[in-house]
Amino acid sequence: MAYSVKSKKSGKTYYLHGRDQLLKGGHRQTIYYFAAQEKDGAMDSVPKGYMVGENVKTGLPLLRKG
Question: What is the pLDDT of residues 19-56, one digit of tens each?
C-alpha cells in the first residue's frame, strides 16, 4: 500500500512516488513527488532522512530533508 497524505486545505489524498532519473553528468538521482492517483513507482514509506510538509498557500504535500 502506497504512503498517502491528506491535504489539510483541500481534503484531497496524495500518494508518494519515486523514480530514478539520469542527470546530464551521468549521475542517477531519485526524484520524489506526490500525485493524486496511485501509479507505478508508488512508495510504501517516506525515505529515510525526509519528512512530509504541506505548502500553506496551495495545500500540496512536499518532502523536506530533516
Answer: 999 999 999 999 999 999 999 999 999 999 999 999 99
pLDDT at residue 1, as a whole number: 86
**What is the identity of the amino acid at 5?**
V
- Concatenated DSSP letters of 42-55: B-SSPPTTEEEEE-
What does the alpha-carbon distance between residue 6 and residue 41 come to, in Å, rounded to a whole number? 19
| 4: Cβ contacts below 8 Å, ≥ 6 apart | 13, 14, 15, 16
What are the helix (H) ranges across 1-66? none
